[in-house]
Structure prediction request, 217 residues.
Amino acid sequence: MHKVVTVDIERDLLEANRTLAMENHGLLKSKGVRSFDLMGSVGSGKTLLIQRLSERALSRGLRVGAITGDVTGDDDMRRLSVLGIPISNLNTGKECHLDAHLVEHALEELPLEELDVLFIENVGNLVCPADFPLGADKRVVVISVTEGDDMVRKHPMIFRESDVIVINKSDLASLMEVDTAALEADARRVRPDADIVVTDAKHRVGIDKLASVLGLP
Prediction:
């Protein structure tokens, strides 16, 4: 009996999140904002990728905003604040992911009428965020070659739920003895229709291709 109740509660929570995510998506669309949910482990390079993409978008006259999510603190927000863009910082406490309800409140703090693009940086985790869409146009998962060549095989769900798969820190691949082609092949098996981009955010490699895949000019 307890197991049935637990399953029902979990199903209700996920359904409620999906409903809110659809409402977030509708709001962003109504304001003409293109949005991207970036997921990935701590240290995969999500913040730097957002910075590089934001710099590129700003240089092309686009108006950019961001939501940064973490268990605690505002380090990522402070890193992105040098860009001079509107940012809402979310702390989840004990939770290992953002959810649509938290993002709903963050959207209330942002000047959506003044934005063209919104980047949402999820909490660093390759498990929890998979089940909780936020309402973004595209879900992007970022992995680093420093995490090893078995990350896709170990965490297939989040790759299955992602529209774009980024293999970052490619400049360290040979040092880590990781074959990026093997990672790409694993990703392709899990999500055949996903766009896969290899990047080196530190040296701005692959940023133009990633922007193109995201539909940014």
